[in-house]
Amino acid sequence: MLAVGVLAGLSVLSLLTYGYLSWDSLGLGPAETEATRTGLGEELGAGAPSSQPHIVFILADDQGFRDVGYHGSEIRTPTLDKLAAEGVKLENYYVQPMCTPSRSQFITGKYQIHTGLQHSIIRPTQPNCLPLDNVTLPQKLKEVGYSTHMVGKWHLGFYRRECMPTQRGFDTFFGSLLGSGDYYTHFKCDSPGICGYDLYENDNAAWDHDNGIYSTQMYTQKVQQILASHNPRKPIFLYIAYQAVHSPLQAPGKYFEHYRSINNINRRRYAAMLACLDEAIHNVTLALKKYGYYENSIIIYSSDNGGQPMAGGSNWPLRGSKGTYWEGGIRAVGFVHSPLLKNKGSVCKELVHITDWFPTLITLAEGQIDEDIQLDGYDIWETVSEGRRSPRVDILHNIDPIYTKAKNGSWAAGYGIWNTAIQSAIRVNHWKLLTGNPGYSDWVPPQAFSNAGPNRWHNERVSWSAGKTVWLFNITADPYERVDLSARYPDVVKQLLRRLSQFNKTAVPVRYPPKDPRSNPKLNGGVWGPWFKEDEKKKKSDKSKGVNKQKKNKNKKKAN
């Protein structure tokens, strides 16, 4: 009998306790599957199947550009390789260099400068979240009849209840609110003494699910349960944001078997984590087929940013890493797999950005995009499915007015158009411009992982002249950013600086508040969760109104 993702060594009792689904546990042998599936459809709901596709968006965390089999990795990813080969590989696909920015742009279709999240990430102790006036993708899909479910990492803020996933368009949520945490215990310490539990089911801590299961496998089990209980005749949106392969580097022992020869311990652990993730996606795909979703489904796979070499990730031959605006930080592994694609088995080299999924998926879902929503994304379905030209000609990678660490940056260096102390990056057609301090800029080849620890002697570097704060590359001709052309093409530099300036005029103020001591999980039952109470705000407001009223009365008496 076929069993999907059953953990090695678990007893039958454990399986029942954890609620892990397998074909056997549901009474579905090979001969029974089709009949039972038909009966399930009839039982759950009658009527013709929806013309709206089932949408499954899988977001990996910190997966490096090289870290997939079809990009030449030594790490085996047979599921990803097969799904990509049978679908459309996105080989000119961009995300943001860190977690929160990519997630916010996916769910709103807007650049960071238009949501106020253009600086860093949302920290656990910050009273901050994706601004509530932004319409989200699941909200738009719910409008046209979709059932919306999120499993995995949120990382878009939670300081007040209105920021939670279930308040932002998801019918159900199972996962973590923070950016990282232990894969087994689901605990996270933000700083010494500021520690708490971070596993949620909808709006409450999921203590009942704290059975020590590795999160990648636990999230897959939850996805299987959702698919088993939903009617495949009705459209579903599944957002699966796996924690892997983000640090801490943890994986079940059996996934190390093929990677004992990797001496670098971080790379070895990372490889095991990615192998487990690949298997998880295999199990998700099996469940889609088994329960009758697959033929009318669209599966999109993406990493949220580049890999972190110090934590085992590889972006070779791209330059830089996670957290930087070099290609290694923002060019991602991505593909679309679907029976609905017209050009299956193809490669898309057109420009695609993570903001594009918002309008693309709403259009596919037969939804409407409000005219007053100023989107930065484009509908790129025909680009992906039919091989047409992309409607996108530029990408604002970001403008971060707070990050001004380039001490030698100046208006003069920006030709009086732009202050080059500001960290920014923009792509227009073939050209890419960076200003300020773009971040760690080494090329880290595979040989760097050949030793027991990270060995920077293998890294390639370029010694920039002192005070350099502007770079220009032709990414089409030089995707590895080896030849800076800023001195050779000053007119192109000026054009791109003007484009940056135009974008900056549309930016909203940065939201990056200081930490709030009330966020300490010790004050919230040991759990990371909403701490900002609306009634507290109201009391303060009422109190201030009372004080103002008293002042006014005093002033009236004085006047009389």
Automatic annotation (TrEMBL):
Record flagged with keyword Glycoprotein: yes
Where are the compositionally biased (Basic and acidic residues) regions? 532-545
Q: Name one Pfam family in it.
A: Sulfatase
Q: Which UniProt keywords apply?
A: Calcium, Glycoprotein, Hydrolase, Metal-binding
Span list, region Disordered: 509-560
Single GO term (MF) = sulfuric ester hydrolase activity
Please report the stretch or stretches of sequence annotated as the Sulfatase N-terminal domain: 53-365
PROSITE patterns on file: SULFATASE_1 (PS00523), SULFATASE_2 (PS00149)
Q: Does the keyword rRNA processing apply?
A: no
Q: Which cofactor does it need?
A: Ca(2+)
User: Basic residues bias located where?
Assistant: 546-560
Family classification:
Belongs to the sulfatase family.
Q: What is this protein called?
A: ARSJ Arylsulfatase
Which organism is this protein's natural source? Fregetta grallaria
